[in-house]
Structures are given as structure tokens and as C-alpha cells.
């Protein structure tokens, strides 16, 4: 399993709107791509901004290429990102997942 990490920052005022937009763009497109295994979104407060980290999980690098294009190190951005005053990282990181467990009481 491969984890793909992308980060961005938005003004606090756009926190909810951008998170909803992220679900409608990146998350929705990820789910529609064969080989997508799941996602997590992390949020932390910065001074007057929110930082969001999106981790998506994929079965292999070819699946990521189907989502992101041939250069999987580049972030996939969307046309309306600017409306949220988005400060995106333009590159992403990939990690081989070597441990992945969820406590039995938390499984769905």
C-alpha cells in the first residue's frame, strides 16, 4: 500500500468551505479511481490559518498515476482553489505503508 501526502493552508474563514470543496474535488476524484483504498484529512490551527493534510491510500504507484498523471510528485490542483485563498504545496510525498492496523473496536 502507498500513502500519498499533500498539504495546504487556508485562512480560518475558509476552513469549512474548503474542506467541503476538498471532498467534492480531490476526495471524490480519488474514490472514482481504481486502486484507491481510502483517505484521511488532518487539520491543525496556525496563526490566522488552518493547515490541512490529506493522506490518500493506494494499492500501487500505477493507480496514483491514473489519478495524478505521469508525474506523481506534482500536486493535483483544481480550478476553484483560488476562491479559498489556498496556499497549496505544489509537490506531494509518497510513502510505503509498512504498518496499518485499526483497533477492533473502531472497525466499521
UniProtKB/TrEMBL annotation:
<dbReference type="GO" id="GO:0004497">
    <property type="term" value="F:monooxygenase activity"/>
</dbReference>
<protein>
    <submittedName>
        <fullName>Antibiotic biosynthesis monooxygenase</fullName>
    </submittedName>
</protein>
<keyword id="KW-0560">Oxidoreductase</keyword>
<keyword id="KW-0503">Monooxygenase</keyword>
